[in-house]
Model the fold of this input.
Amino acid sequence: MPSDPTPGFAEGGCLCGAVRYRVSGPPRSSSVCHCRSCRLASGAPAVAWVVFDDTHFELLQGHPAARHSSAGVVRGFCPRCGTPLSYRSDDEPKVIELTTATLDHPELFAPTREIWLEHKLAWQPVNAELPHHRHGSSSEPPI
Done:
């Protein structure tokens, strides 16, 4: 069941409710990703992600299944309904990226950038008000 917004905390979970989680504190970043890997993992033209320090993430219910989707990357999803939930990279082991739309109140975590524009589908619109990055790094200058 979706939670009410609580300052400093947010909850989320999968479509069937088998997996529930809570995050606390401000996110490290919030992005819309256009990379091919995210598109294939989600079945969507782009995926919104919100990133938290691992210490600010708490599993409340259930146990996500995990899949190594590429070298050094593990994606978490509900083993019952298949909802994509998380992304973890060996490059940042103390960080968890969560699919923004699985939060009970995703509107509280609007994206601040769009990444991997070099993989964007030609018919997929972008938000002209956000910085755009050819690759995934926010350290590169926007395009």
Q: What stands out?
A: The helical segments are 36-42. The chain has one domain: 9-119. The longest strand covers residues 47-53.
